[in-house]
Amino acid sequence: MMSRAGRRPGNPDTREAILSAARTLFAANGFNATSVRQIAAAAGVDPAMIHHYFKSKDQLFLTTIQVGIDIPSKMALVLAGDPEKFGHNLLTTVLEVWDSEDGASLVAAFRSALSDPTTSAMVRDFVTTAVLGTLVGALHLAPDDAPQRAGLIGSQMLGLVVGRYILAIPPLAAMPADKVVAAIAPTIQRYLTGPLGF
Predict the structure, then answer these.
(1) pTM above 0.70, yes or no
(2) Could you write out the DSSP letters of every residue in 109-121?
């Protein structure tokens, strides 16, 4: 069957065309406001080609900032089982990812986000939607409650990442992961399902 006129076939240049279009659109519009169809149109390909090269829009975004982590799969692990364990699951998963061989690319992406406003906006939009939004969305919270809890969780996780992996503050940087989880997971869980005190 012939491909549509004006569409690139599946060749080595197609993946790069998709990545280039995605970088441009994510930078201009943010993660949430950029659709797969918009990226496909800008790249001159059928939307099915994006799914051929990338599992999801999340995966495409992470590839544009050179982070090779399957966020949907990781979030499925976080959200498995009892909601009262989500805090523990989240922290355990985050530490496993940052302590893995992918940690170096995460540090690089994080430093880029801190120094470049465009990258910072893209990462913030992605984390707010794909990670924090997915997390609090699974709890079916009230519309005015979910953003507050997501923001508190984000601030806690940001502080942990900066302290442990970016600034390498002792003894946090060398602390075993299970001790970090034991110390911080209860706070994350309170932000998710407990009283906030206001």
Answers:
(1) yes
(2) HHHHHHH-HHHHH
